[in-house]
Write a structure and sequence with these properties.
Order of helices and strands: HHHHHH
Strand content: under 5%
Distance between the termini: 47 Å
Largest sheet: none
Shape: globular
Radius of gyration: 19 Å
Helix content: over 70%
Number of helices: 6
Structural class: mainly alpha
Length: 164
């Protein structure tokens, strides 16, 4: 038996454990969204929008871009992994097992609406806190503050359990 086999088994057990807990999966997806958010916030504030944001020292446009891209990232991965057991498919009479653009658009609209409160909290809290600390740290604090409401809203509405 090689040394890799016990490590592989341990990794598979850890992944199976995470698979059972939806909020952990949501947190992992959220962490990936946080990376997307912070990278785009930095790129936007330091490079893309530097000429319009430098005078104010607040990341208005770059924060909007960062939140938008992180929302798209999180919707995609939450749909494919966190709530994959609840994803809706086409109605009867259509190709079974496939997702229509209309249905995907509806789910994305629900996700954005459900996450809208958290996004607003994140946006305004980041702007408020960036007066007292680095805007990136302020953004992480704001993201953590908004995560619980985002999870509950999407669990109860966007990806709610299918009715029997």
């Amino acid at each position: 038996m090689s040394a890799a086999q016990p490590a592989q088994r341990a990794l598979l057990r850890a992944l199976a454990w995470i698979e059972r807990y939806r909020y952990l999966k949501f947190g992992i997806v959220g962490a990936s969204g946080t990376v997307v958010n912070l990278v785009m916030l930095h790129i936007g504030h330091e490079y893309l929008f530097q000429s319009i944001e430098a005078a104010y020292k607040k990341p208005y446009a770059s924060l909007a871009l960062a939140i938008t891209l992180a929302t798209i990232n999180n919707f995609t991965w939450n749909r494919l992994w966190t709530w994959s057991d609840r994803v809706k498919t086409m109605e009867e009479g259509e190709v079974s097992g496939h997702v229509s653009l209309r249905l995907l658009g509806t789910e994305f609209g629900q996700y954005v609406t459900a996450s809208g409160f958290g996004s607003a909290v994140q946006y305004f809290l980041t702007l408020l806190l960036s007066s007292y600390m680095d805007y990136r740290i302020a953004n992480v604090i704001a993201i953590l503050s908004a995560s619980v409401s985002n999870f509950l809203a999407n669990d109860r509405w966007t990806f709610r359990r299918k009715q029997p």
